[in-house]
Amino acid sequence: MSKRDELIVKYAADLKDKCGLTADMDLLTKVVIGCGPSIYNPDASTVSGSAQSELDTVKNNFLINKLGLKDGPELDKGIEAVIEKYGKSNKNKYRAVVYYLLTLHFKKESVYK
Q1: What is the pLDDT of residues 74-108, one digit of tens each?
Q2: Could you tell me the pTM of the whole model?
Q3: Residues of the chain by 3-state class (helix, strand, coil), percent to 5
């Protein structure tokens, strides 16, 4: 099993254990591939739910640039909802899981088809 495959299994387990979701493995795999090499870097592979600069990066680089959403207060509300669902007290919020949850939240699965 490749390192990426191992991470995908870990992310799917996180979705199940922390969010109560059974991952669409095809979509999760595409989101992970879209994250590129950041998934292998311990710092870049996670999202800090309390650092505004980190949340701005998620909004600008992922929601606006990748998913093609228009900037507005609903993006911040969506990020907040996903962070809440993942668990604010959960220190290790994997970037790929956050991006997967945001993709579902904004119903933008078509971006990965």
Answers
A1: 999 999 999 999 998 888 899 999 999 999 999 99
A2: 0.96
A3: 65, 5, 30
